[in-house]
Amino acid sequence: MPYREKTAWLSLVAMALAFVPYFAIVVAQSHSSPSSPSLRQLGLFAIAAVVQMAILGIGHLYLTHGSPAEARIPPDERDVAIMRRSISLAYYVLITGMILVGCVMPFNSGGWTIVNAALLMIVLAEVVHYGVVVVSYRRQL
Amino acid sequence: MKASITNRIRFLRFQNGEMSQAELGERIGVTRQTIAAIEAGKYSPSLEAAFRIANVFNVPLDEAFQWDAKDNSSKQT
């Protein structure tokens, strides 16, 4: 498995472990959570962000230590093509999500609902980004 | 969809002292996985990379890569 595919898998795993529990808690408490920002919600988000960064940091150290030569190699033309394709597709997901969050949701939602929806769109865009990278390497595209 | 560009890189590698994909990749500045993807017809290299590959084996470009004109004209109609 190429080093860049391994880092893409790491990013997907980190996001899943950090944000699946976060959104599960958010959905479970959606009926009782206040619409205005609260320290509790902020704390939940901070924990998710720290968990993601910790997994990424430790994971990258492990991967770099395991194959230091491969980690140092700059991206070749195919790596660049895969990056461009994945970022392009993720951009469309992100822009669609932000239009929904910014232009549609304010008419029927408010407070943390909009904030969490925006966060969900960012996470989805990142899932698409790294998912396309993984699929491209798996299928040798 | 059938690829209209094919190549004989695998054949040329074996003809040139059984060169490995990694070695060819190193010589033209790409990874082994990129060479594997090119040989499998799943990735089309840039023009420069294609010329570099042909140069490694000391053959003309159309000796390493072949383009099926009939396949391309059937797509246009």
Structural features, described:
The complex is a heterodimer of chains A (141) and B (77). Chain A has 141 residues and is mostly helical. Chain A has one domain. In chain A, 81% of the residues lie in helices and 0% in strands. In chain A, helix 1 packs antiparallel against helix 2, helix 1 runs antiparallel to helix 5 and helix 4 packs antiparallel against helix 5. The two termini of chain A are 14 Å apart. With 77 residues, chain B is mainly α. Chain B has one domain: lambda repressor-like DNA-binding domains (434 Repressor (Amino-terminal Domain)), CATH 1.10.260.40. Chain B contains 6 helices and 2 strands, in the order βαααααβα. Chain B has a two-stranded antiparallel sheet with strand order 1-2. In chain B, helix 2 packs across helix 3. Chain B is globular and about 35 Å long. The model of chain B has no long low-confidence stretch (mean pLDDT 88).
Keywords:
A: 141 residues; mainly alpha; B: 77 residues; 434 Repressor (Amino-terminal Domain); 6 helices; 8% strand
Topology at a glance:
The complex is a heterodimer of chains A (141) and B (77).
Chain A: H1 3-28, H2 39-66, H3 68-72, H4 77-104, H5 112-138
Chain B: E1 5-7, H1 9-15, H2 21-28, H3 32-39, H4 47-56, H5 61-64, E2 65-67, H6 69-76
Antiparallel strand pairs in B: 1-2
Quickly describe the structure.
By secondary structure, chain A is mainly α.
Number of helices of chain A: 5
Distance between the termini of chain A: 14 Å
Distance between the termini of chain B: 16 Å
> Number of domains in the coordinates of chain A?
1
Mean of residue pLDDT values of chain A = 91
Succession of helices and strands of chain A: HHHHH
User: What is the typical, i.e. mean, pLDDT of chain B?
Assistant: 88
Q: Largest beta sheet of chain B, briefly?
A: 2 strands, antiparallel
How many structurally independent domains of chain B?
1
Distinct helical segment count of chain B: 6
Order of helices and strands of chain B: EHHHHHEH
- What is the CATH fold-level name of chain B? 434 Repressor (Amino-terminal Domain)
The portion of residues forming beta strands of chain A comes to under 5%
Form type of chain B: globular
Strand order of the largest sheet of chain B: 1-2
Query: pLDDT below 50 for ≥5 consecutive residues: which ranges of chain B?
Result: none
Strand content of chain B: 5-15%
